[in-house]
Amino acid sequence: MIRQLLNKKAPQCVAFLSTLPLVGFMQMALATPAPTSASGTVAAGQTLTVSGSNFGSTGPNIVMMEDFERDTAGQKVQLSGAPVGAWTAYNSSNTFLASPSAHTGSVGFHAYDYAGQGANILTFIPGGQYSEAFISFWVTIPAGKTFPGMWGPSGSAPPPAAQQFAGDSAWKFAWFLQSPTMSGSQFNIIPLTYAGGGQFAPAESASGYSMFIEPGNYSENSNNIGNAWWSWSGWNRVTTWMRGNSTVPSGAAGGIEQTLNAQNGMSTWSFGNPSTYPTSAMFQLGVPQYFTEINVPGWIRENSGPNADPTYDDIYIAVGPGAAARVEITDSPTYTGSKHATILRSTNWSNTSVTATVPKAGLDFSGTAYLYVTDYLGNTNTNGIQVGSASTGSSSGSSTTAVLPDPPSDVTVQ
What does the alpha-carbon distance between residue 302 and residue 287 come to, in Å, rounded to a whole number? Predict the structure, then answer.
């Protein structure tokens, strides 16, 4: 088993998992999903029926899929009308403007309001108390715009220029809260934080806990996945799967942090388990481990520069048991080789069949497409099944009945 070693004191020792099988090693108790065929059309808004085995009996409870396509660039984004779910509230009186920069489709979301000197925080209350969450979203800094932050890379004013990271802590990409009036004694977790000095910290809490990445000897906020994964020239997908103490099987990983973009591909880090890391963020001893509110973004540094423009698109959130289960279409015959990926809306989930619909905003790549299934324990098939030719946007795509490739000819069965 190979897992990524990260140490804030020695970030130069980071070894990326981008060339390794992702989640087959994460949970050995359940066989890896094995999709064998997929019928349907690979195009925006179209549905695929995926057949195979070992999908698990629990599918995702998808509570939010947001593409901002109903909005108009330059006008305030709407709380209702997302493909799945609806935002509960605007967190402030800021502008909340839609952006002409989009990952898919034609509209994204400006997450920072310079005039209001703060983040445009969208609040979502899923209803109920949850101890497990899977969140994925795409973010970018458009060309000519700047990363948020009050200090430049030198650690002092002025704010960062284009393609510079801030010297100060500047961006909580999302925030899961136990209550709107959060206190230090309440559970909270941030899927990814830009902590300053070029450091990104995965899954930490405001009260000083973090999801410890295995292996390593950590104490509180010592995680740092560096910034080599970040791309200044396109969109970055950030994915976090987190689960509380009671939801983690013995010896299993506590979740993952994953990044993906067209320039640097996929990198994945595995979180520790509550037995080894009892003070990790999702396993805070003595703290009830549940959340009731989700904010996107979680926070952005006030007094960021006038060109600061962190932009979001294609937000996906699933909660509760089964949150990690999903169907994805990517551009690579191996999951870890992917540079483009789209999470579909999964319905009618069983151990041998899943119905999944391509988002209406479409895919972010054209060409040969491959399908992957992840079960509720985080296991993903290593090699995808080809599902025809993908097209960006709302173009027609191709109808397909995909099957697994023939076995290699140089293997003899005795």
Answer: 30
Asked if pLDDT for residue 108 goes beyond 70, the answer is yes
Q: Please say if the pLDDT value at position 396 is more than 90.
A: no
- Using alpha carbons, select from 96, 161, 83 the residue that is nearest to residue 122: 96
Query: Tokens 């549940």 map to which residue?
Result: 290
pTM for the structure as a whole: 0.87
Rounded to whole angstroms, what are the CA distances from 404 to 45, 341, 388?
24, 20, 12
pLDDT (tens digit per residue) in 178-236 = 888 776 667 788 899 999 999 998 877 665 555 555 444 444 445 788 899 999 999 99
Beta-ladder partners of 342: 329
Structure confidence at residue 202 (pLDDT): 86
Average pLDDT, the chain: 83
Structure tokens at 370: 């491959």
Please give the angle made by the CA atoms of 213, 228 and 196, to the nearest 5 degrees: 75
User: Cα separation of 219 and 204, whole Å?
Assistant: 12
